[in-house]
Amino acid sequence: MAASAAADRVAVPTAPDRIVIENCAIATVDADDTEYASGHVVLAGNRIEAVGAGRAPEDLENVVRRIDATGHLVTPGLVNTHHHFYQWLTRGLATDHNLFDWLVALYPTWARVDGPMAYTAAQGSLAMMARGGVTTAADHHYIHPRGAGDLSAAIIRAAREIGVRFTLARGSMDRGESDGGLPPDFAVESLDDALAATEATVREHHDASFDAMTQVAVAPCSPFSVSTELMRRGAELARRLGVRLHTHGSETVEEEKFCHELFGMGPTDYFESTGWLGEDVWMAHCVHMTDSDIDAFARTGTGVAHCPSSNARLAAGIARVPDLLAAGVPVGLGVDGTASNESGELHTELRNALLVNRLGDHREAALDARKALRLGTYGGARVLGRAAETGSLEAGKLADLVLWRMDTLAHSSIADPVTALVFGAPAPVTASFVNGRRIVEDGRLLTVDEDAVARSTRDEARRLATLAAPS
Question: Which of 27, 186, 323, 422 sits at 20 to 30 Å (Cα–Cα) from 409?
Fold first, then answer.
């Protein structure tokens, strides 16, 4: 009788804990760019429950924390759409090189990366981004030296420990030096091995759910390190598995020349011929784009990861971001690897994107503060295929958001907080929430020991340098 009664008992759902943030300026980055000079955000579990003007209702139940955010701006969490975490261990090298010379100089070192290095470098890269307001990050990892082990699993483990929402773009290369490519032969995979390992990574780690913390994309490296067959079959694999596709595209004039010489067409036409344009594709850089290239991206919904600091560091050029946006191309921001953007921070890219693009043809009309913020939030979420879940502050979306302190010496005399955030010095992060979990408090990570990460990355960088040094 007791067992039967227990079986008939209906479970009552537990109401989610709520966190209330109030008395803050809010930039929602929704479709209408709604902003509040003083407003509130209510988090319920891992979702945003409400965003509005004034204080939150006093009679809310299950409130576990009320944050008086006076002097702060609240925005969606920043979304980094392109990175190479392993490069954290080779910062500050080849600082006066263009892209091709830089790759030639660094590939022999990168080819020595192993599991502990990949894990530690991912920790360093993610920690730096997270403490600077990044809540979603993508890593394009294409170095898989023979015998190095499962580097994808090492990177994913680091992301889970830091606590950010993460897309691993499982990269690959099958064109080594002996086939006319840039990387050493022992740092590339065979065609079949690359495809098999990529599929295994997707099947083991990709989560397609609304609140997924880990997703995987298929990501051959670039036209000059990948065979046409790997590009074509990689696209087929991604679509069979229902995941996104990522690669480098149109980064330098040398790449354009390479594509014309090898394939008889420019990069965009080559990508289209191999199935690499579409709403499920995003490409890094896209600096050297013709009008017809931009039209092709707009027509197909292909996204762009704009990396202004890296493009400048490697003298690649100025991407036509205003023209891409005007055509309707999805555009987000990327840190790119920290061997070509040593700061490793995305919030500085808001400012750099605005300033660099004003050096182009559109001059002062290229970007404004709110367009730059949109690139770094909603634009990035759209590029990663996650705009329905994150990238703006709206009821029902995931609780990924940042509290920027705007009342310190660095920003206090700038009346508009969005202008202060984009044009001003990097703003302190008082709090960063991912999936409703606070991972940063007063500029420090709560999930890992930053000092320990600094020590381990220094040690692994030294070990890598020793392994790569000429005998």
Answer: 27
